[in-house]
TrEMBL record:
Keyword Protein biosynthesis listed: no
Subcellular location: Cell membrane
Organism: Caulobacter vibrioides (strain NA1000 / CB15N) (Caulobacter crescentus)
GO cellular component terms listed in the entry, alphabetical order: plasma membrane
EC code(s) of this entry: 1.14.13.22
Protein's UniProt name: Cyclohexanone monooxygenase
Similarity comment: Belongs to the FAD-binding monooxygenase family.
Amino acid sequence: MAMEHVDVLIVGAGLSGIGAAYHLQKHCPGKTYAILEGREAIGGTWDLFRYPGIRSDSDMYTLGYSFKPWKAAKAIADGPSILDYVRETAREHDIDRHIRFQHLVKRASWSSETATWTVEAEHDGKPVTLTCRFLHMCSGYYRYSAGYTPDFAGTERFKGRIVHPQHWPEDLDYSGKKVVVIGSGATAVTLVPEMAKTAAHVTMLQRSPTYVVSRPAEDGIANWLRSKLPAMTAYGITRWKNVLFQLFFFNLARKKPEKVKERLLGMVRDHLGPGYDVETHFTPRYNPWDQRLCLVPDADLFDAIKSGAASVVTDHIETFTETGIQLKSGKTLDADVIVTATGLQLQLLSGMEVVVDGKVADLSQSMSYKGMMFSDVPNLASVFGYTNASWTLKADLTSEYVCRLLNHMDRTGADYCVPRLDGEVEAAPWLDFSSGYITRSIGHFPKQGTRKPWKVHQNYALDLMTLRMGKVEDGVMQFGRKTGATAKAKPEKALEPA
């Protein structure tokens, strides 16, 4: 039986993978493709996470696809609504029939002789192998099998339940119970007000504060525009409004951090009143946008604190006890349920092993090209969204650019494209971000350069110009022919070793 071959193999059927398939169908209609999804359902993050209150941490006018308007009233949307939106997109464009569920990709091997990737996956405990011309990784940036939990002392002594949000148990009943949520990131500030609706009390226990910003759950301007204009027109205007405001705010935070910090903390004081200790519980030690800001819709976290249903404790954990947590300050927190909202484990290319012409590629030593490809690795692109804006903004641009590459290779008769380092390029960490989940794992990720096209821009407008309008043949991206006997009689160049 012949091994199945497709022109493009997409890995991951989440927000990015479904978007990649749409762009491929639109811009490269003659290409065959398949999507390998390790889990049993569409949706990625939005299907995996089931914790109470799960919602977007950015507005849906930028987290939504460029080609499919977000029509719901709420701009800060709940997880199930986002999941419906992704699945609806797959159905509308007949993408779902291309998905192979429960196909966990393990290894991808490139051959210059045939200019193909051989991709090995596991399905029902058995190996499955496909070949493809181009490999498009849309598998996210974290390990789906387990979140990150520090080794807290005494966890075995605790008599209640300990839960990580990434694996929320369906049978967990916390109504009328004392809950401690460990963490201060996007997940924690989502969980606390939601659980506080029925719990006896919810305490958010944090080692250090995070910037928390309230914004309306509904975008009044967007809803007004949608009532007056065609859906795509209204969506496009709102999308650019939000992109430009975010860029302005991010750049202001970089140029005048103290001024932005003062404004953000002033807004928290307005919500919580003069008697609340904002200095201890909501004043971070870092500048705004050194880590991602936490968004709370309609000030729900602040309202829960003001009502007494929730509280914030800033301290360090000494040990878990039978009935809760002993803090280093000497205080104790009683708990029936402890939620460890302590973050993700970052993972590059879903942990897949990459082999180029028989040699295992150490991608941590590679350089990132335009934030989407790796030096000396041919015909492979990976989606990684923005840290300071919505993921999908970059995902859409990356997928469009992959289509530009594919069409360019077809026009010029090339079999592969590969970014090559052009002289000395100074290396820098891939992400300029101080969040714990990033600093723990950044060594496993590629480097970025200090000049284009190796520099990773956290700027949608700049990337839009570069990826949509910039030259494909930029002197760094090299194009070539396969080296095997079946190659056409043209000057050929073998891939140089990585």
